[in-house]
Amino acid sequence: MSVTPSLKRQAFWTVIILATTFFAIYSTVFALTHNIYEVYPFLYFLPIILFVYQYPRWGVLFSLLMSTVYLLLVYYLSSFNPAVIAVSTAWFVIFVTIGVVTSSFAEGLRAEERKYRASSRTRRQGSSPSISQRDASGSSTANAPGC
Asked: 0.85 exceeded by the pTM?
């Protein structure tokens, strides 16, 4: 049984997304248990953007899930420090916004890519615009050169 390149690519991206997600969550737990509050929120951008690029339709849901995990970790591990909770709530909104914006962008990018591939495929097959001709009776017929 051979593994297709498409399956290899999907497995690669799945591993990368899982690894960056685990790293972001682990770093959050480590930072919060050691009273480090400045760095760990930035680590959530990478898994969100990677996931949204690979799975644009599910990007908003994933960013909401990651944001919720982030916020719950902060609430649970920060001893309900009001300043940390306020900043973390703002990060929650930022993460969801990043998910929404990049998901919309990725969907548009995928649509343009599909359109380009279809156009390229049509040109490789030798299709060109049809030429309309009129016969002696006046009726129009369409001919596509190269077909």
From this structure: no
- Structure tokens belonging to residue 112: 């343009």
Report the phi/psi class of residue 136: left, alpha or beta, with left for phi > 0 and alpha for psi in -120 to 50.
Answer: alpha
To 10 degrees, what angle do helices 45-54 and 59-77 make? 160
- List, as one string, the DSSP characters of 3-63: PPHHHHHHHHHHHHHHHHHHHHHHHHHHHHHTT--SSGGGGGHHHHHHHHHH-GGGHHHHH
Contacts of residue 4, defined as CB under 8 A and 6 or more positions apart, other chains included, come to none
Question: Which tens digit of pLDDT belongs to each residue from 51-108?
Answer: 998 998 999 999 999 999 999 999 999 888 889 999 999 999 999 999 999 998 888 8
Burial per residue of 73-100, b for 16 or more beta-carbon CB atoms within 10 angstroms, e otherwise: bbeebbeebeebeebbeebbeebbebbe
Per-residue b or e along 12-42, where b marks 16 or more CB atoms closer than 10 Å to that residue's CB: eeeeebeebbeebbebbeebbeeeebeebbe
* Domain residue ranges in the chain: 5-123
